[in-house]
Amino acid sequence: MSKSRAVAAAAGFALLAGLATACGGGAAKGSATAAFDPATCQGGTLTVLAQQGQGKFDPAELYTSGGGKVPTLVFRTLTTRDHTTGGPDGAKVVPDLATDTGEPSQDATVWTYHLKAGLKFEDGTPIRSADVKYGIERSFAPELPGGPPYLRDWLIGGEQYAGPFKGADLPSIETPDDSTVIFRLTKPEGDFPYLATATQFAPVPRAKDTGTDYQKHPISSGPYVVTSNDNGKSMVLERNPYWTRSIDDQRLACPDKIVYTSGLDSAVINQRLAASSGDDARAVSGDTDIDAGILARLNSDAELRSRVTTGYFGATQYLAFNPTVKPFDNPLVRQAISYAVDRQSVINAVGGSAVAKPATTFLPDQPAFGYTPYDYFPSGPSGDPAKAKELLAQAGYPNGLSITLSHATSQTDIGPAVAAAVQEALGKAGITVKLDPSADDDYGTRTQLPSSEPGFFISGWGADWPSGGPFLAPIFDGRQILTAGGNFNSAQLNDPQVNAEIDAANKLTDPAAAQRAWGQLDAELGKQAWTVPLYHPVYKRLVGKDVKNAYVSQWNGVYDLSRISVK
Amino acid sequence: MPSSASNPVWRRLRADRAAMAGLAVVVLLLLLAAAAPLVTALEGQNPTAFHNELIDSATGGVPIGPFGGASARHWLGVEPGTGRDVLARLVYGAQVSLSVSLGATVVQVALGTLVGLAAGLGNRLADTVLSRTMDLTIAFPGLVFAISLMAVVPGSFPRPVLLMLVLGVLGWGGTARLVRGQALSLRSLDHVAAARLSGARSWRTARREILPGLAAPVITYAALLLPGNVTAEAGLSFLGVGVRPPTASWGQMLSGATTWYQADPTYVLLPAGLLFATVLAFTLLGEGLRTALDPRAKSRLRRTRSRRSRQVAST
Fold it and tell me: Residue B287 phi/psi, 5° resolution?
């Protein structure tokens, strides 16, 4: 998913509400010293402070990575990310509603799942395989837009299917009995278990479906039910009486109540969490990294330092080239720019070394993606202008050249601060950079439409799940050049050999073999300098002082609300 | 400015200490802005060079050292996150802030005088149409309109000029209303009536008989418009629709400083203090000009004020 979508989704995970007042005012006194014990962690109200709302809280419309943060409290899916650890294993797929992560056929085109016994909705009715099938079918309805694009592409007949509301079903999802679901795919997809973590794989009872109004009160299969929902801007979740830990080994569900509040400024969230007064002592940030104000205090404040957690979400910020625009068709020019870039300045522009690591590979530096280190155009931390000048001379620009860098106007990781850092570094190599800002929405549309794509711009890509496939294919697969918009293959690369390697890697169901294949492909693509990787973000997030067992998932870089305790 | 003691305006202005302090600050700021390349050359810095070695990346890019990393080489420290020289950015920012606000004021006054004269001296229809247009521009939510205008104009258009035009075109209503009122009262005076009766054209009457009478109120009003334009420019740049990086402006520096107010207070205080000083200086000068150009205003003001306080006391 694109970075902006990733951010929206991450905000999406966040969720729940502004009414966090009354209860629990003095509940947590002195309890901060007690150690965390899952057996006695129940009770209290957890507040989630977020900048962005959840949007429509319909499992068909949510776009999450690994089931999201708040959605995973309400929607159980066939598989899910490993909730039980903040370590690297958090990037693994584990069964959720299903008994295993899926049985593939020989060539990974048919995937079979069996549901666990004893699963129930919030009204006590049992969860059947037909409910899972119906939930997925709903996500095809044009009335319920959003969600990841893969299902339409992967399931047989998905291209033409328009959802269940007009009576048609999707025959490529079979339910031979109440506990078995079989998916038939158009092509081998070893990553299917990763996709099955999406909220589209949550069961929806057909009898309770209210169409576009379902988002107001979706029927819960998880530990919490939605008791109040203001269009996702603020939400209140309370316990689901039909959920127990005995049928769910992933979620602890410690707080009795979870309140989600959005629309807050990032500085406000950080200040409230740092101060931890009143209900804020039992709060976490939904989508906000610590800022310079907090970072500067960490060295001298051990208590505050103990409340900051670090996490990773596979993502890369990069400079994209469009080789159909001169002079970026010339590999020497692209290489010269790769040498000239000052990654340290770029990292400082987005918040310093605590929240970003320099990137020389397109794949994020986590093993799950198949990370294979390479640095073909070594520029050190601050660029190698001499080498860049040399290459420019070879390319026929001995006196330097003038180019335009497009960027968004908002103060984000694709905004003017990064652009100015790049401009300054390239200037040292004799490359005069003119900045071309456009408003965020325009910027997205412009850069994702091949006919209007600028020659050189700032972009980012975040993982739909921790695997090389969803990271490389949308950017480098020639068949994913979308001429009508929404295109992320910014180099407009259509190389038969690259396409063939992507197909081969997609067939692999063994994660280790797939990782090797994706890593090798990334290393080959890197030589062509289709992009200049700038940095991988690091997530550093703050919690209130009475929050326990708070860790950040290595899958999506957000707090695992299903494991946090405030008692 | 004529220094001859015979000029009564200058004499009265000189007697006003607050106005003189304002004038001194304004002159100093103008000199500083004009001499920006000289100041930075003297310091040996420029406003765009990054200095990664002067900031601590691990703590988010806070300048190393007290007072925002102030040193013999960077007199006012460096910008957090980039290490760019603060003094260089402040003086180059002054160029933008002052030229935009002066330019916008000129546009406002020119447009306002023209429209106001036309309304005051034209026929009834012209007066009605123009007066309603003035009301419209005064009632218009200027900031909102400015934001959208700044956002839609193509990036190739020079931003400072665009800012001048947008602020100017949105802010002439007050001047126009003032000029119209003055023109209406002036046109009934004997010397104007004499000129008209002797057959002078209305344009000539306006230029020769009315404009001189307008000078005092218009100059005063312009001096008071200017600080408003300084803050408007800063506001638009603060909101990210003003001048664009890497060009420095005070509003932009303040916008960038919002996350640094705890970690690096120096970086917030410098542009904020400068903005405050500029607005205060222009306001003091404007007030001083007003009383100097219209000595009766002072006593009139005093009288109204005391009358009002008497009323308050009696209730």
Answer: -60, -45
